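Service request form, structural biology core

Requester: graduate student, group of Dr. S.
Request type: structure prediction, single chain
Budget code: on file
Notes: please return the result as structure tokens.

Sequence provided:
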Amino acid sequence: MSNKLHNFLWFFLIFILSFPILFLKIENFSFRLWDESMFAINSIEMLNQGSWLVPIYNGIADMWNSKPPMTNWLQMIFIKILGFNELAVRLPSAIASFFTILVTFFFVKKHFDSLVALISSLILITSLGFVGFHTSRTGDSDAIVTLFLTISSFIFLDILFKKDYTSYKLALFFLAISFAFLSKSIMAFLFFPAFLSILLLEGKDVLKKVFKSKYLYFGLATLLGVVLSFLFVRDNLQKGYLSYFVNNDLLRTVNEIENHKEPFLFYIKNLFLYRYEFWFVLSIIGIGLSLFRFKDDIKMKLVFYISLILLFYLVIISASVTKLEWYDMPIFPFLSIVAAVVIDELMNKIPNSKFKLVFVLVIFIFPYRIAFGKSQSNSFNSYEQKNEATEIFLYRSYLESKNLNNYTVYHSGYPRAIECYIHKFNEVKQNINLTFVPDFQIGERVIISRDSLKQILQNKYAYDIEFDEKNVTIYNIKGNVRD
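Core staff response, request fulfilled:
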């Protein structure tokens, strides 16, 4: 069997294993609040107005979205192909996660063997934090930046272990970092302390060889050019952006942003409890093994360096004041490799290869079943059922082709997910109004989910109830106003 055919078969197997969890039913729930609906509304308005650099919201430049435009670019391409819908918005993240799994597989296959590579991929596929909310299955930037950070790290490690210090791969390393910056700004640079520490551990001779390479300076110039060009051009197009970028992105490590201050152990606790629950202990053991054996075993030295990358990153985000649970996504490929090495150590105790396959099946059947169930349930917890009731109602109404022409949504809170559905209803020639001021008009048919707004209406107006289900009520305002 040729090497190309062999690699294609592995590609196909990884896709088959990933598809049910990453892609199946990916469109089957409403736009989530905050970042996903922010990206979605920005992307459709950018596409409509021909803006490929500055996010647009309600027809004007959007300062709230300070992220560079890579995620929007990818979403705009898919919206152009598939139309404005959940699938088009989410496919870039799902595809990025699939390629993260794929590059992890081939990197591990190169440095270990096919079985360890397959185990690493299965661990990634069954890691709930990697494939869940705000990561692989929602239209956010984290899956995309994770792909480029993973690629850059594997290029870096390949350079070291092949002793190819002056290779063109140095330029590719910085190109991947540039793409990571265009995906999620400063997150692109959070692996650099680990990279520098690894170079220092390699010694002065390696450092000298790296710094003699012309590709190092070409790559640095590319990265610097991308970063400065983006910041300069966007600040010129959107006055005040640079100041906002500094305060919102650069300084979130020392400032609390949007009430997201959490304790130092926030990420470790989340990894242990649910985001990486099946494999957490194995990864800790793998890190420990690499620490004690990296001097005598070249493969364990690679695991040790991988452990340093994930630990440096984990400490940096843990020390930051502002924390969000999905910020840990970039370390999942590295955690999967470290855990896979431990499983490989256990399998080496099994003499029969058939028993090894049974061992793998036994280990993964339950985590895979859980990951599949979580990804396909598309469920809303009680908070989401209440907080996103209007969005869920509009989503289901759109799917059921309900006529909501000239209805008015009264809302308090974050509006962009609702505005996504207003865009979708507009496409089928239905006009839905959105307002935040509870100044109800006689004759209006109004859609309300917030209890405070319902109370105002019920206290001041006579009404008929047209619909009342799952936290959403549709009122028909009658002609009598209560005193």
